[in-house]
């Protein structure tokens, strides 16, 4: 049977991480962040102030109100990046994520233009 995107995201997150950490992250994001689980996309995200990104806020259990944040941090995602933008309940200045241990930060409008309109592979 084919894995759902939630299952794929969970398995990717669990590589080198214990199962309890994934469960704790999911619970925290369900309670204080944003979680979307649809047939074609799975996302765990939170809002953060960009000036705290270099201070370990991405790995922390800290959550911030949207009013004090200017960045969407995408903690975990499986599916097409282009679909992320239709799920965002509001726009912030930046979108941030980590790949291979490196922080990537984009202006929301720039990444939306590149990926949502099909100008790049998702």
What does this structure look like?
The chain is of the alpha+beta class. It has one domain (5-116). It is 33% helix and 28% strand. It contains 4 helices and 5 strands. The protein has helices at 5-14, 19-32, 81-87, 108-116; strands at residues 34-38, 41-48, 71-79, 94-99, 102-107. Strands 1-2-3-4-5 form a 5-stranded mixed β-sheet, with helices on both faces. Strand 4 and strand 5 form a beta hairpin. The model is unreliable at 118-122 (pLDDT under 50).
Task: Give the helices and strands, then pairings.
Layout: H1 5-14, H2 19-32, E1 34-38, E2 41-48, E3 71-79, H3 81-87, E4 94-99, E5 102-107, H4 108-116
Parallel strand pairs: 3-4
Antiparallel strand pairs: 1-2, 2-3, 4-5
């Amino acid at each position: 049977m084919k894995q759902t995107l939630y299952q794929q995201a969970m398995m990717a997150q669990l590589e080198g991480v214990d199962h309890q950490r994934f469960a704790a992250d999911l619970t925290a994001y369900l309670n204080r962040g944003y979680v979307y689980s649809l047939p074609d996309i799975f996302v765990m995200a939170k809002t953060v102030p960009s000036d705290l990104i270099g201070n370990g806020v991405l790995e922390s259990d800290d959550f911030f109100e949207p009013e004090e944040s200017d960045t969407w941090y995408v903690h975990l995602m499986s599916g097409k990046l282009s679909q992320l933008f239709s799920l965002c309940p509001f726009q912030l200045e930046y979108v941030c994520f980590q790949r291979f241990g490196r922080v990537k930060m984009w202006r929301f409008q720039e990444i939306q233009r590149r990926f949502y309109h099909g100008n790049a592979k998702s």
